[in-house]
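Consider the following input, taken from an annotated entry for Proteasome assembly chaperone 4 (Didymodactylos carnosus).
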Amino acid sequence: MSSLIDTEVLNNHVNLADNQVIQPIKEISGGINVSQFSKRISDSLVMYQIIRYPDRCLFIWIGTNGDMSLSNLAMTMPSMVPLSTSNNTNNLIGTTLFGGDFYEHSLSLSKKLTRRLNKQVYVSLNLPDENELLLREIESALIEHIRQNPDAY
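Applying the prediction step yields:
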């Protein structure tokens, strides 16, 4: 689904030798902000697009330059009513909305981000193959981006 992705920016990322390229946050309309960054991990150029909606909701697309599709989507949100006082993970409500590939990883990542950011998070992972090491590096790069760019989230 190429309309979600700024292909001109992502194509420029492919041609750069830098390890990480960050596009500044830009408002597209009505308080909706978009930021993008890429990071070379192993042999892959992994691209991230973060869309922050004004109603405390995030959409995060992660993929490679070879596949700019939306093959899965998971969503997690904080529970309005605490379900348990002893276990914070029970205060999250999450599901896979569609897709098969990487759906468990998308859901797991959306839960981690919802817990960290305390907001509803949609995650779509679109990668050529399931590589646990690559998935850990992708998650680490995203967490580092959150630390360095809190306004994007």
